[in-house]
Amino acid sequence: MISSTEFLDLFKGCMHCSTICLASTFKANAASGMAVNDECKLKFQELKAKRTYRFIIFKIEEQEVVVDKLGDPAESYEGFMSSFPADECRYAVYDFDFTTDENCQKSKIFFFAWAPDTSKVRMKMVYASSKDRFKRELDGIQVELQATDPSEMSLEIVKARAL
């Protein structure tokens, strides 16, 4: 038996769904203990410390977060944006270089939670309920963006959040 507080907490996971499916909610909550493949942490450390990659796209596969795609350091933001599937959720990190108003070169690591409106409700629930735990595994995230549509993570929005 779960308490009323625990029951209500089950519904906090998904901010993208307009409907609530109890079966999906309970399954998604159980999935929040999702494993994180060691390659995810290793590749993130390489992005952060060595700048080996511009971005990393992650997906959940067989109850585990795994690396889906690695972006070369020279890859553009448009290349990053085109890496997201139109109808499936993903997590991503992006190493964003920018110049401040004081003309200083800086870099910030962004975390993206991509949950398009066209993805399945269950998938959105699993990604939403696993996001915080996965993010904790990636030490060094500076900015988080959640998006359901490409316009919500446009280059202009990223630039504004970086400053």
Automatic annotation (TrEMBL):
Annotated source species: Clitoria ternatea (Butterfly pea)
Cellular component terms per the entry's GO annotation: actin cytoskeleton
Pfam families: Cofilin_ADF
Gene Ontology biological-process annotations: actin filament depolymerization
Entry similarity comment: Belongs to the actin-binding proteins ADF family.
Ranges for domain ADF-H: 33-163
GO molecular function per UniProt: actin binding
SUPFAM superfamilies according to UniProt: Actin depolymerizing proteins
Domain of life: Eukaryota
Sorted UniProt keywords: Actin-binding
Protein known as: ADF-H domain-containing protein
InterPro entries: ADF-H, ADF-H/Gelsolin-like_dom_sf, ADF/Cofilin
